[in-house]
Amino acid sequence: MPNSTIAVTGASRGLGAAIALELATRGFTVGCLARSGGIPDIEGASALADRFIPLKCDVTDESALAQCFSELARRTGGIDGLVNNAGIQMGGASRAFPTADFERVLRVNTVALFAACREVYPYLQQRNGGIIVNIGSFFAEMGAKGNVAYSASKAAIGAITRCLAAEWGPHGISVLNVAPGYIETDMSRGYVGSPEGAARIRARTFTRRAGRPDEVARTVAAIFTEKIEFLTGSTITLDGGHGISL
């Protein structure tokens, strides 16, 4: 599927930047949707600048999403896939967690993700099929203290993935959920880099370490590169065994 066009939300940094870079390295044209409106802020991106199409977008603005997909399709001739990576994490004790914060997390992580899937659907249909990869989290299956909103938002992504795969499979559209565990990014560095967090991750993962952004990026890129049509509706957990460790 190289030489195709893939849209990536939250592509400016973290996992999104790593995913965009890996896709570009493999020959894809990457529409980089981010509030900053620039190319991925990651080493190696500038050398592949001609493969990136920066698109300024707040994913919670549905009209902006629609306009970005329209612009991307206009500039490249069509859209072949989407990576829904944009997300936020807001934690705190559930007994005092504000409803507004709970709604904010779901708005960014879940509602915007669904809207992006819906808005990109016509472009994938025009290509007689395509792939959507949603970035979930192993927290969807965990009892994570102080993370009720984040965990709920990521659990919903699994359900959205299954339902869209069922609806859109007959149209040649595959929908998958990649659910990372602890990955060394800005979002998790405080915990991953702390003595307590690092010790817990070493104890619970079979790899005895946190994951790297490039490992998630290569997993996502492999899905687009291989284009296995029979692989759809599934959650691919990428956590070093953390979620199944005793």
At the first level of CATH, what is the class? Answer: Alpha Beta
Question: Regions with pLDDT < 50 over 5+ consecutive residues?
Answer: none
The number of domains: 1
Q: What would CATH call the homologous superfamily?
A: NAD(P)-binding Rossmann-like Domain
The overall pLDDT average reads: 96
Gyration radius, in Å: 17 Å
Distance between the termini: 39 Å
Largest sheet: 7 strands, parallel
What is the molecular shape?
Answer: globular
Helix content: 40-55%
In short:
This protein is of the alpha/beta class.
Give the tags.
246 residues; alpha/beta; 42% helix; Rossmann fold; 15% strand; 7-stranded parallel β-sheet
Structural commentary:
- The protein has 246 residues and is an alpha/beta fold.
- The chain has one domain (5-240): NAD(P)-binding Rossmann-like Domain (Rossmann fold).
- The protein is 42% helix and 15% strand.
- Strands 3-2-1-4-5-6-7 form a seven-stranded parallel sheet, with helices on both faces.
- β5, α4 and β6 (173-180) form a beta-alpha-beta unit.
- The relative contact order is 0.15.
- The mean pLDDT is 96.
Write the layout of secondary structure elements.
Elements: E1 5-9, H1 14-25, E2 29-34, E3 52-56, H2 62-76, E4 81-84, H3 99-126, E5 130-135, H4 148-168, E6 173-180, H5 189-192, H6 195-204, H7 213-226, E7 235-238
